Amino acid sequence: MKRIADEMCPEPKKIRLVMYNFKTHNASAFYETFEPEEAKRLWDRSEFIFTPKHGSWLSMEEIELQVLNGQCLNRHIATTQDIKSEVEAWQNHGNNKKSTIIWQFTNFY
Fold first, then answer.
1. pTM of the entire structure?
2. Which domain holds residue 22?
3. Residue 96: phi, psi to the nearest 5?
4. Which of 32, 68, 71, 106 has the greatest CB tally within 10 Å of its CB?
5. Within this chain, do residues 43 and 62 fall inside the same structural domain, yes or no?
């Protein structure tokens, strides 16, 4: 969080983080890791957004990344530019198919 706040996102007053597991991200973790003043500073700049337990979009993203890896990246690719070109071609193909995700969940626990 310190690296994100100080190096990657020094400008914004609030940093919104989309998190999958709400139980592991709380103020006490900041205070266990940093001195109290630093923990408060980082906590005050953070806004945690937690994905729902059912039908999490993050799970769908994980599936999409697995498909990308299986169909496109599971081989040696020599350069970063080649990787970018391969991913772009894969993405364009998928977008042209106009595939959708069918969200399904029940209210049974």
1. 0.47
2. 2-50
3. -70, -25
4. 68
5. no
